[in-house]
Every structure is written in structure tokens, then in C-alpha cells.
């Protein structure tokens, strides 16, 4: 999840592509965000609950897990917003690309 979020953030933070391959890649990432949204959005609360249960039994998880649980939910929300923004930019890029080919 962390790897995907990082890749998607980079993809959606870059200017909208104008070549067909770049547009296709961005559309694939947008689709991947849409596909992951139902499960990923509801994933974080149960994990926090499991961590709390483990902590109640004096089981300490690695610091990396705690860091991910702090950083990933807001990053995931940001990726969803960036995907929507990029999706809105793509049709204009496709239209301008079609105009160039005429």
C-alpha cells in the first residue's frame, strides 16, 4: 500500500501527460485508485483496533508500523483527491491531442 501510494502521488503530482502512453498509464493509476478505494478506505480503522489489542497485551509493534499508520491514511486521502484532479485534467489533454493530429 505504501509503495502504491508513493507511486500514485508522483504520478498525479506531475503535469498531465500529452502522449497516448502517458495518458494510458495515468488512466490505469486512476482506475487502480478507484478499484482500491472500497477496501483501502475502510482498512485503516480495523488495523488501528488490532494494534490497540496487541498493545493491551504488551506486544509492541515495530516503529515502522506506527509510522505507516500515522502517515498512510492522510496520504491515501490525498491520492484520492489527486486522482480526481488528474481525471479532470485528462479529457482536456485528450481533446488537445486529437486537435493536434487533425
Mean pLDDT: 89
Radius of gyration: 18 Å
Main beta sheet:
none
Terminal CA distance reads 41 Å
Order of helices and strands: HHHH
Which blocks of ≥5 consecutive residues have pLDDT under 50? Answer: none
Helix content: over 70%
The figure for the number of domains is: 1
Class by SSE composition? mainly alpha
Q: In what range is the share of β-strand residues? A: under 5%
**How many helices in DSSP terms?**
4
Can you count the beta strands?
A: 0
- Judging from the principal axes of the Cα atoms, what is the shape? elongated
Structure description:
The protein is mainly alpha-helical and 102 residues long. The protein is elongated and about 55 Å long. It has four helices and no strands.
Short key terms for the protein model shown above:
102 residues, mainly alpha, elongated, single chain
Write a brief caption for the model:
The chain has 102 residues and is mainly α. It is built from four helices and no strands. The mean pLDDT is 89.
